[in-house]
Amino acid sequence: MRLLPAWLQHYRRADLRDDALAGTITAILLVPQALAYALLAGLPPEVGLYASVLPPLIYALMGSSRTLAVGPVAVAAVMVASALQQFADGDSARALAGALWLALLSGGFLLLFGFMRLGWLSYFVSHPVLSGFSTAAAITIIGTQIPALTGVNGDRQAAFFSFIIDITPRLNDTQLSVVAAAAATITLLLIGRFRLAGWLRAIGLSAPLATLATRMMPLVIVASALLISSHVDGARYVAVVGDIPQGLPPLSISFLWLDGWQGLIGSALLIAIIGYVESLSVARILAIRRRERINPDQELLALGATNMSAAIAGGMPVAGGFSRSMVNFDAGARTQLAAIITATWVALAAFALTDILAPLPKLVLAAIVVVAVTQLIDFKSLWRTWRYDRRDGLAQLGTLLGVLAFGIEPGLLLGMALAIGLYLQRTSDPHIAVIGQVSGSEHYRNIHRHSVTTWPALLLVRIDENIYFANAPAIERQLMDLIAQAAEAEHMVLVLSGVGNIDASGLEMLESLAQGLGDAGMTLHVAEIKGPVMDRLAGTALLNTLGNSHIHLSTQAAVDHLLGESQKSATN
């Protein structure tokens, strides 16, 4: 077992400059984001800073990605807020302890999955479901920032539609000064993201410096807001962050004695799954760009440890953030040393900047959240999915509407259940084709799609789906219908090239079919069985009943054998 990560064992001095620059630029983005995501989760802003120090250090030592930036993320933050809404019932101390429990439990789930090598569990959250969830979560997050952006007092609801219904009558109390300041902040952030670099390059600034200026835009806006708020006593006009404890808290497990933590188990599981899927997706995107390899099981262990460390460090659940990781990657990060440098800067900020941040208007952090999550909204993906596959499109749309109507957790569960249900519905009625020989070749294709040769005595049928409990009855029904239509058929050949698995229900169906055909005077043959399927069938009653003469390597071999047998019978 290695004691040091691979990147540290083979670290090159030439990478130090790139890692230092990337770590610094990422820290510039992370400090205001960390404060904003903590507020989004309904927690004190300093919690975001605490979650941005120890967790990245742990991931740097354990993760398999060289450039993934771990810390508070928007989606996890809104899931935390949803989980804590009823759990804490307005009690800030209980909410903070609950957030620590969520980090601990989600980390525990991830570690358990990692030890059991269950990295494949991430595939149960399909891309359409994840895309619909991300879009709905982003819309929900934007909705939760309306009070801070308008000055209207509103109760944060778990579901977006309920929140909008609740706050709409109160918009008459909108403070125009707050709206104006928020609009200006959002505009400047959007300019910094999409236009500033091009403008700076147009006046002769080098591309690296233009990019650096773009990355620093949020920090510049925060600094400007602090100066203005301090000069005019901003607390008289807008809500401000207020006093933030200086430094980092000591590591502690005192939250373990919180009563009722068991009620957070379900939420922690969902936070763990979504955080892992999001992190793994980002890590894979970055790894492909540099032809590196990501170990899903190692990621489970690393993210599990980072979340548990967040709990004892006074933080909140963490994951690999898309925007932050992309900034880290684009800034030239070569290894996880960049993350260590980022964490160091954040720690210094926790000691040196907390007093300075007190007059920061919350609307500035709300604007940062809004601009950050807009990139998660992707309606084009919904249209593309709907056009390609209506079932997947329905799962994506159902997830999106479910989250908006019922809340983060119920909506996500609805989407996952819908995706699995639609998959079962699709595979429960599989495509089965009667096939024939394409003239002049050994290829066999669907008789309804190609001009092919068939033989009255042979019924060649290709099954294009795994045979399992949900579709075995439908397959049997379709096969019996085809047999009834082929009055002259003496032999049925099942071509199993599209079958990767046959479960016990499927095996029983095939055994019953073989027995029934034998009683009816027909013989059953199988062709093109995949190796792993053949290994499982070895020693079963099905193969014993069929015998080697009824098992064929290819469809052509089956046809040659059966036509030869027919010719022999005719000669005799």
Automatic annotation (TrEMBL):
Subcellular location per the Swiss-Prot or TrEMBL entry: Membrane
Cellular component GO terms held in the UniProt record: membrane
Residues that span the membrane, as ranges: 20-43, 63-84, 96-116, 176-196, 264-288, 300-323, 335-353, 360-377, 397-424
GO molecular function, one term: secondary active sulfate transmembrane transporter activity
Positions of the STAS domain: 448-562
Pfam family, one: Sulfate_transp
Membrane topology: Multi-pass membrane protein
Keywords, in A-Z order: Membrane, Transmembrane, Transmembrane helix
Stored CDD domains: STAS_SulP_like_sulfate_transporter
Protein name listed in UniProt: SulP family sulfate permease
Organism from which the protein derives: Paraperlucidibaca baekdonensis
Taxonomic lineage from the root: Bacteria, Pseudomonadati, Pseudomonadota, Gammaproteobacteria, Moraxellales
